[in-house]
Amino acid sequence: MEPLPSAAPLATKLRNTLVQYHGIADSEWRVAKKTKDATVWRKPSEEFSGYLYKAQGVVEDVTNRIVDHIRPGPYRLHWDSLMTTMDIMETFEENCCVMRYTTAGQLWNIIAPREFVDFSYTTNYEDGLLTCGISLDYGEVRPDFVRGFNHPCGWFCVPLKDYPNHSLLTGYIQTELRGMLPQSAVDTAMASTLANFYSDLKKALKT
């Protein structure tokens, strides 16, 4: 098990990586799924052999409230149907923490429950916020779970200029589920999970 890294340099590097993803040209993305709530694209990841996914949709609420529902905290577990447990293991200054969480099985349990330990960081971005994370090799792996790994991931949330009570939410996700899984099953699950994330989030914000 590795010791915890210094929070500030990791947060800076993570933010810079996400801003770089946010600048990738539209022509590099291929549509993976489209619903009334969101569009999901993908491109080959430069971090591992799977895909980097981009999801985007307009959410009817103010930026701070949306990000409060996404980042580690009391809201996320209530509405995110994929997340089954979440514990904050360490808290740092500057809106950084380390959290351990578990996810439910997917695709009739072809994808078994997973456990992740992520460093999470939330910061200002333009007129809105960016909440981002990356997995750490930290803490004992619990039995009954496969330890997955999130390469740099994050959510940009910025208010729409003409509709300040609406926000444009753009996510970048590249999750290495690990274990013996057919890549096609992973790709199907990822695109659907991201689209469902928007519809679940919208329902949660209305309650």
Write a brief caption for the model:
It holds the Pfam family START. With 207 residues, this protein is of the alpha+beta class.
Point out poorly predicted stretches: none
Instruction: Indicate the CATH class.
Output: Alpha Beta
What's the overall geometry?
Answer: globular
Strand content: 35-45%
Distance N to C terminus: 41 Å
Q: Give the mean pLDDT.
A: 91
What is the H/E order? HEEEHHEEEEEEEEEH
- Look at the structure and name the CATH superfamily: START domain
Biggest beta-sheet profile: 10 strands, mixed
Please provide the count of β strands.
12
Any idea how many domains? 1
Q: Considering DSSP H and I runs of 4 or more, what fraction of the residues is helical?
A: 25-40%
* CATH architecture heading: 2-Layer Sandwich
The total count of helices amounts to 4
CATH topology (fold) name = Alpha-D-Glucose-1,6-Bisphosphate, Chain A, domain 4
The gyration radius over C-alpha positions equals 16 Å
Which structural class do the helices and strands define? alpha+beta
Protein name: STAR4 protein
Organism: Asarcornis scutulata
InterPro entries: StarD4, START-like_dom_sf, START_lipid-bd_dom
GO molecular function, one term: cholesterol transfer activity
